[in-house]
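Entry for the shared binder. Reason: the reviewer on the internal report wants the predicted structure included alongside the sequence.
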Amino acid sequence: MRKLAVLCASVLMLFSGCTVQSIPQEEEPEAVPETTELPENASYDPDSNTIYIFPTTETPEETIIPDSVDIDAGATSLDVLSYEVFEAGAVITDFSGSDTEIIVTSHIGSYPVTEIGHYAFEAAWDVTSITLPDSVTTISEQAFADCESLTSVNIPETVTFIGRGAFSNCTALTELTLPASVADTQEEMLTGCAVEDLYILNPNLEYNNWGLEDAETQCTIHAPAGSAILTWAEKNGFPTEEIS
């Protein structure tokens, strides 16, 4: 017993200069209350007190076969224009003809044509003019890319969105007007173009790396006084004109 006491005293003397700290214990996470509503792609395991989130993908919109394929009188035939029809409207998806002047129909049967789809007219080298109907709200990514002979295209006052590279490499296009309805554009919209006069009618539309800085010919920006695009143009040395 005496030896044990001496040993304990020696150990205490050896560590007398050390600071003793308690080791923190890991706290158990609080369980998820039974009343907590989880998203449809989540599940809760009470044994491990863990919420598991599972990846989800959006269900693609189903295509519709229209009862009729009537189109506007004088519009380009659907024999050379491919399309898909959805509940919200029809999308022009491809062009395979030799027509040089394109007039897109405003409807296919009872469905309005609301979108020019991704790459729909890409590399339609011989097309010189495109007329879009007032039903169109979206011009998608590279819809008219590489239309090297295109000199005329209208953007209806119903269009709100223009996608990436929509008019890229349209080397014959010297003038373009974005109506006040256009509120969202993506990058490279005009990369490789020869636009000399660009009309921006929405005073709040901001420049979004459209590719104008790299153009061989510096275009003139026409826009309302005090507009975001005029501020950008003046800051970057582009010629400007205020319009009402």
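Summary line for the report: Confidence is low (pLDDT under 50) at residues 1-23.
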